[in-house]
Structures are given as C-alpha cells and as structure tokens.
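Appendix C. Worked example: Domain of Uncharacterized Function (DUF349)
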Amino acid sequence: MNTENQNPENEDLKPGTEGQIGENSENQSDVDTQKSVQMPPEEKVLSEVDPNKEEMLTDEISEEVPQSSATEIMEATPEHQQSMHTQKPFHIPEEKVLSEIDPEEAEEDQEETPDHTTDSRNAEQVIGEMEKLVNEQNAGEKNRQFQQLRELATQKMQEETEDKKHEFISAGNSEENFSWEHPSLSKLSGLITIFKEKHDSYLAKQEEQHAENLAARQEIIERLKNLYTNSEPGTNLFKEIREIKQAWSSAGQVAKSEFKLLNNNYFHHLNQFYAMLDLNKDYLHQEYTHNLEKRQQIIERAKELVKEPVQKALNELQYLHKLWKEEAEPVAEEFREKTWDEFREISNQIHERKSELSAAIEEEQKANLEKKNQIIAEIKKLSSPENAPNHSFWQNAIKKVEDLRTEFLKIGSVPRKISNQNWNDFKQTLRDFNTVKNNFYKNLKGSQVTNLEEKLKLIQIAKDNMNSEDWDTMVPLFKKLQEDWKKIGHVPRSQANKIWDDFRGACNTFFGNYRSKNTTGSGDNWKENYKLKRALLDELKEVGSDETSVEKIEEIKGKWNAIGKVPREKLSINSEFNKTLREKLKLNKVSEFEIKDENLSENQLTDKARKIKNQVADLEAEIATLENNLGFFSNPSRENPLLKDTYANIYDKKAQLETLKQNLHKIISGE
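Step 2, the predicted output written as structure tokens:
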C-alpha cells in the first residue's frame, strides 16, 4: 500500500477498523501463490498503481542494468514505498556509480566500443595480455574484457598478415603464391578454449549463487509478512523494518525468471506493512523525518555535481536517483512534490551539460582528424622527393617518419564513421614510403656491384705490374691507379676489406721495390732505427691499465712515428708493434682513433685519413641497415622490448661515427 497517498495526520481511526485489520492479518492469503487480497482501492499492489515503476524496480536486481535516460528519470513518480536499504551514513565515494547494482553490466553499458585503430600494440603483445587475464583467479568474470582483447588480437594478426603479404608482393612475388600463417594463431586458439572453460565454470557458480539468493529473499519475505501479521507487543517496528530492508538490499541477485514474482511479493507485503502502520503515527513520523533527511542529503550532493566534470556527474547522478527510490521513500505530503521538483530541476541542469560534452568531443575529434591528415600528407611528401634522393636524405626521412608515426599514435580519436578509413590511409602511406625507400637501397646495391667490378680491374693491373722496374712508366701508372681507386664509390661491405688489402698489397710491393732500388747509404741508420723501435716495443708490452696508461701509449706511439725505416728483413717489427698496440688499447677500453697521433709523416696521415673514411662509410651503412630494419616492425618505438638492443646498438654506432668524423676533421684541417 502506498502510504504517501494517505494523510494519516487528518484521518481518525474508523469504528471497526481495528477488528478488520486483525481479521485481515489472520486470514491473509499466501502472497507467494499470488492470490488476491481484499484491500481498499487506493491500496493496490505497486505494479497495479504504476507499471512503469515496476519496470524501474526490476532493474535493481536483474543482471542487466541499463542506464535510464533523463526523460525516464524525470517522469518516474517517486511517491511509493520502494525503500530497500537501511539508512547508512550518506557518503558517495568519488568513483561510485551505477555499478552498485551490477558492476559488470553497468560497466558494460557505460563503456563505448574501444577504438582499436590507434592501439600501438602488436598481436603478440595483445595475446600476452590475454594470457595474463586467463591466468587470473577471477578470469571467468571478465568475459567482456577478454572478448575485446580477442577482437583486437584478431585484427592485429590480420594487419600483420597483410604487412607480410605486402612485403612478399613488393619483393616481386606473385600474390597467388603467398602463404603465411601467423605464429601466434595456435596460442590464441588455446587461450580461447581455456577461457571458455573458466567462463562456463563462472556461469555455473553464478547460477548456484542465484539459487541461494532466491532462498534468502524468500525467507526475508516471510519475515516481513510475520512482522505485520504475528508481531509481538512491544516490537520495535522501526528497527525491524530497517533490518528487513537492509537484508533485502544485500541479499544479492536472482535469476531473471524468478525476479518479477519475487519482487511483487516483497512490495506487496511491504505495502501491507505500511497499511498496518497507519495505526502507528509515531512510527510513521519517524519514517517521514528520516527519509526527508535522506532526500535533503541527496539534493545537496546533486548541487555539488553541477560543478563536477560532466561524465562523472552523469554517472553519480544515476546513483543518486537509485538512492532516491530505495532510501528516500516515503516522506510527508507537504514535502513530497517540493523535494522531488528541486531534485528534478538539478538533474535537468546536469543532463543539459551532456550536449556540451558531446559537442566538445566532436570538435576535439575533428581537430584530431585534421592533425592526422596533415601527418599523412607529410609522409606522402617524403615518399616523393622533388630532387633525386641520396643516402643522407633517406636516413633523415626515416627519422622524420618515425617521429611522425609516434605523433600520430599520440593523437586522440577521430569521428568513428571515418576512423577505420583514416587508420588504413596512414598504414598505406607508411607502406608506400617503405617501398620507395627499399627500392632506393636495392638500386644502391646494384651500383656497388658495378664499383666492385671496376676496382677488381684496378687490382689486376696493379698485380700485373707490381714487379716491374720500369720506374719512369710504372710510378705514374700506380699513382693514377690510386687516384682512380678513390674516385670509385662504395662496394659491398662483405668485399670491401678484401679488395682493399689486395690493392694495397700490390701497391706496397711496387713502391717497396722502388724504394729499395733507389735508396743507398741508409743501412746503418735503418739498423739503429730497428734497435730504437725494439726498445719502444718492449716498453709498450710493459704498459698496464692504470690511470696513466693511455698517456704512456700516446707517448710511445709518438716516438715510434718519429723513428725512420728499418731494414727490409726486420719489417715484421711494425706488425708486432701494431698488434701489441691494439691489445693495450683494448685493455684500456680506448679506440685507436681516440688517442693522439703525433710525428706522423704526410703519407702516414693520408693512410690514417683513408682508414677513418672507410670506417665512417662502414658505420653509416650499418646504421642505415639497422634503421631500415626498424621499418618492418608494426611498433618500432623505443618502448618495444624486442627493439631495446637494436636502439642501443644504433646509439653506440652513432657515437662512434661522430668521434671518427671529428678525428678525420682534425687530420684534414692539420690540427
């Protein structure tokens, strides 16, 4: 019975009423069998007074808890006995929302479908997240989260398969011959099977829990029925009804098929209880006062929500409406409409801000779309340079594209209707860039093969004439061979050292013969030079790895450079010195090009500069290869654990390259 439709303050107990109620209590039909009960017209069961309220109450226990619209909340009349909770200290936690009814369903309703297009994880990482989720103790409860990860993993695997297919076709193969199975496919299938078993187990346990909750709620209904039919004199009705409401509120969910009948039974007996309370105005006054205080607390909190962020305010407002229905009913007639109108007005103010949020999100998404399109345009511009690109251009372009890619992924979402198209345009632009870049380096390898053939011809000429003693003809020839060698570009790195050793050996043989035949009277000096170099070599062998070791090495090398030639049969001492020098430098963790090199002759400086140039070229090629390989990863960021060592290697090589360039500059500038 809806006691708010009565005015017990102005009604007197009619003759015979007490006897009628007593008789009604004794002959009360069993409500669980849903038999009719003789009641005044205004004391109908709640579902007969307002069917809409029955639907709203159904949401309180059912497994699905849809978020009511502003119109539905405003139209719902609050004047009925729906109080299901005991009065608790009124404090709404910051994150408390509708999930109080059913956390899983409420969260599912509030969250939008995730936008996977800007997710930077690859398939292996997503499957790793799925594996962690499956291994959790409560994995069966997280069906929605698992299905989202499953959808994302499937999408990422399809994208990676498309990337492999694109690479396969770009390499000149036919699309019909492409066959590739993702390595994580079997693992994904296994995880799906394991999760299904855990989820089925969770549903079975949930069904058992529903059965237990049903039994508990039926016991609560019996207790409520006994409260107004068989209560003993002196019973504290206020305390008893609060305990019953608290028990009903915390009894847990039941199956949907059982809910409607169960809920109607509860509120039927609750109405009967309130009908009995018409005889107890003192209790009714306490109930009205208590519920009015609760309404005032709810209104004050709603006023605070007007200034809160829109999304948070909307979520908590929904929870406040739930409290209004369950813990703030009924109140005295004079406060009923007044408090409800005030609460409804504040609710309207909060819901009006929802359009502001939608408009702001739409504007932000349009701005994000414009930024992303600009990035796509910049990458396309790099893919089509106006002038013929060189190695340096592509290295700068690779770095620029990596920065643009990182910026693209950091930008927020775009309008959903064009989100997929924007993401596909971005991926296709990256693929086009990599295709053009890879074609450049393929052609570069072709030119290196041509350079190799030309240098091999020079080696053959040098070997054919290295033992000739026609000095007037051969000296200019060998000088020209050396000049031509310098003009020819790079060769494949695997062949560079070998052909250089062959060419240098032939030239050294020729010029060694030339010097030995045209130098006289130097034998005694050469022998003395050998003795001095032998002493320096012995001194070098004694150097350790203390703080002054590098200075000692530099001093010994400077003295060594200042000493002249040694007899031809003693030339091996130079190789022995160089070997010992490398060992000592390695012991002290110093590069050969980092130490001071004094007293070098012009030829020695030239030879050192040439060696540095070769090392610079090799390092640049290695760095280019490493950076080029990064482009084949879907997530080539520094945070990717698979690429951590690669980025560290690139950093070290760039540091070494910078040191070599500085040393080369010093040699060329004469510093």
